[in-house]
Amino acid sequence: MLSVELHTHSSLSYDGRDPVELILEQAEAVGLDAIAVTDHDEIDASLDAVERAPEYGLVAIPGIEISSKAGHILGLGVEEAVPPGLSYELTIEAIHEQGGLAVIPHPFQESRHGVMARITREQLALGDAIEIYNSRLLTGRANRQAERFARSYDLPMTAGSDAHISEMVGQAVTRVDADERSADAILDAIREGRTSVEGKRTPWHISLRQFGGGVTRRIRNTVVGLLG
């Protein structure tokens, strides 16, 4: 079984803090086998991670967190950015056109762009896998809803730290029964549901710091954009 982190953000995300090398260092330090950097609507840092991961004894899966009209969708195994603003279905189609895997993160957390605020349960089931444990939780209710949904529709289940700072990488891990230690084998195993999840809650003060940092960066980027 491989220990895989499927949901992290680098400084390339508007609300991320750390460069790829710190994320990879943390992944190595906590004993992960593989990691996906999934920045918001950006893919360059993820592709950089793919190139640099072997230096840290890791497999890196290229990925991106896409802002669809319905909310956030993780595209894993893609090497070109999927444009934001597409419908839920078209976003999934764009991921599949690249041979990627569409994982629906925190679907029941409306405050964090979960898709269930704007789609039906039947549409949610179009995803290839459901993130049933996201470390950035308050009560855990949304995670439990996601798990119940995935089980009722017999969908593969994943976990993700949703780390926006390197220290939180590895808070939530997907255990993947892959045939070999490669990105393709990991994605194939997830598609087939050969996963289990484990994780722990991101400390509230860390979540608050991540949120505050994201707000500050959004304001700064807006000002820079206006001045530019």
What brief labels describe this structure?
single chain; 228 residues; 9-stranded mixed β-sheet; 9 strands; alpha/beta
Describe the structure concisely.
This protein has helices at about 20-30, 45-50, 90-95, 120-125, 140-150, 185-190, 205-225; strands spanning about 1-10, 35, 60-65, 70-75, 100-105, 130-135, 155-160, 170-175, 195-200.
Distance between the amino and carboxyl termini: 49 Å
Radius of gyration, taken over Cα atoms and rounded to an integer in Å: 16 Å
Number of separate helices: 7
Widest β-sheet, arrangement of strands? 7-6-5-4-3-2-1-8-9
% residues in beta strands: 15-25%
**Helix fraction by DSSP (H/I, runs of at least 4):** 25-40%
SS class: alpha/beta
Main sheet properties: 9 strands, mixed
- How confident is the prediction overall: mean pLDDT? 92
Indicate the low-confidence ranges by residue numbers: none
Q: How many strands in all?
A: 9
How does the overall form come out from the CA principal axes? globular
Please trace the helix and strand order, writing H or E for each element.
EHEHEEHEHEHEEHEH
